[in-house]
Amino acid sequence: MQYQLTRRLGRGGMADVFLAIRRNPRGRPELVVLKKMFPELAADPAFVAMFLEEGRLASRVRHANVVRILDTLCDGEPCVAMEYLSGETLSYLVDAARLPFPIAARIAMDAASGLQAVHDCDIVHRDVSPRNLLTCYDGTTRLLDFGIATTSADPDTLPGTFRGTLAYMAPEQTQGVPMDARTDVFQLGVVLHELLTGRRLFAATSDHTTYMAALHQPIPAPSALAPAVPPELDGCVMRALERNRDRRTPTAARMRVELEDALARTDTETAHAHVAAWLAAAIEPRIVERRVAERYALSDPPPPGKPVPPLIAGEKPARRTTPQTITVTDQPAAVASRAGGLDGIDRTMA
What we know:
Blueprint: E1 2-11, E2 15-23, E3 30-37, H1 39-42, H2 45-59, E4 69-75, E5 77-83, E6 87-89, H3 90-96, H4 101-120, E7 123-124, E8 133-136, E9 141-143, E10 150-151, H5 181-197, H6 207-216, H7 222-225, H8 231-240, H9 252-265, H10 272-282, H11 284-298, E11 307-308, E12 318-319, E13 324-327
Antiparallel strand pairs: 1-2, 1-13, 2-3, 3-5, 4-5, 6-8, 7-10, 8-9, 11-12
Helix pairs in contact: 4-5, 4-9, 5-8, 8-9
């Protein structure tokens, strides 16, 4: 299998993220995303184990609402290859447009379905946030980035440390207690609250004040901040946001059922086709730009120095560089051991 790196899309805590072309002799070339570990970290077996564990965990989950891992491999530097998704993260969408409540609910229902599949594999994601949920232009939403996911058998939590995105952490994440599916339910509750209201739930000026807000700030019902949100949805959100997890919505599957029931009581139908139609109307110029960039990425290389169209939102036009081709044989998506937790808060685990 060959992966031709065409451009760097971003940089995380452990790896560069590249757009790549997957070249399979038996099929047509396809766009994929390849995360390539930093060389300086690849020299440390503990970091290699941590990085490859992400691919191992994510590859266990096969579901329409979870990003699909294609390969976990090594070619000098460890890499994880995953499917390329044509769409936008919720981070982009909440900044670009106000989401109608049926659209927000459908996105959350998809996310809940993906999370339930993750939990069925005995995995806790731990970083459900707008940057890790992507809504495709066909209207489906997928869960991304298993960089700090863990299992109940290997909790990867050290006393005095916690990992995740601070403004979306469940209270138990900061208390050094074992986490379970309800941790991810709380995080999805924060995301849905923000989709419905169009504002950050635990907005603060520093890490400390964000931490204190997440633990103690009163949480208003979405309809109190956004009158267009029907009260039927308030209960779904507020039960997911119970700080006492014994009173919280117990599973992601239950959260999805509650959202479906709430929408039914409002006589509102929302299918993936409705989400796709809303995206087409709300961010049409961005979709057109993205389609052009995708076709460009699969085309023959243009003359050196010609600007490359933006592929991700906010990306500055780049210059195409000489592509790097990695030829690999598939490696078992497994590692011998799991590295210990990192001190402090990891926000950018690639």
